[in-house]
Design brief:
Oligomer: single chain
Strand content: 15-25%
Shape: flat
Order of helices and strands: HEEEEE
Number of domains: 1
Helix content: 10-25%
Number of strands: 5
Number of helices: 1
Strand order of the largest sheet: 1-2-3
Radius of gyration: 15 Å
Length: 118
């Protein structure tokens, strides 16, 4: 289910393109990420810690970046293995967070095939 764009999120996305240090994270896209991802199939998740920051990938596709260093923490990225990403929904009481990637309200589990550390 695609969700409407939140104007604050779009502004944050634009600011992150100008300089990711402004908000403390680079937003790859203001749109829901990997809407087509099938959660009942195997996927490869990768987290890279490099000198410039931390990069997150799902199936070799970059989904988030947190640059180093930035002046102060103004934002954070929660890149969960199940790709459940949330955003504030306009019109929800108290700005309740909703899924921006997948609307999956069923109980879930995570089965690991392998883990690599370098």
């Amino acid at each position: 289910m695609l969700l409407e764009k939140n104007s604050r999120f779009v502004l944050a996305s634009i600011l992150s393109k100008v300089s990711s240090s402004i908000i403390g994270v680079e937003i790859i896209s203001p749109k829901p990420s990997m809407q087509e991802l099938k959660l009942d199939e195997w996927h490869e998740y990768r987290v890279e810690w490099v000198k410039q920051g931390v990069n997150f990938y799902v199936d070799s596709r970059e989904v988030a970046k947190i640059p180093f260093p930035f002046k102060e923490e103004r934002a954070r990225a929660d890149v969960w293995i199940d790709n459940a990403v949330y955003e504030i929904r306009k019109g929800d009481p108290a700005g309740v967070y909703r899924h921006a990637t997948q609307e999956n309200r069923k109980k879930a589990f995570l089965e690991l095939d392998y883990i690599k550390a370098h």
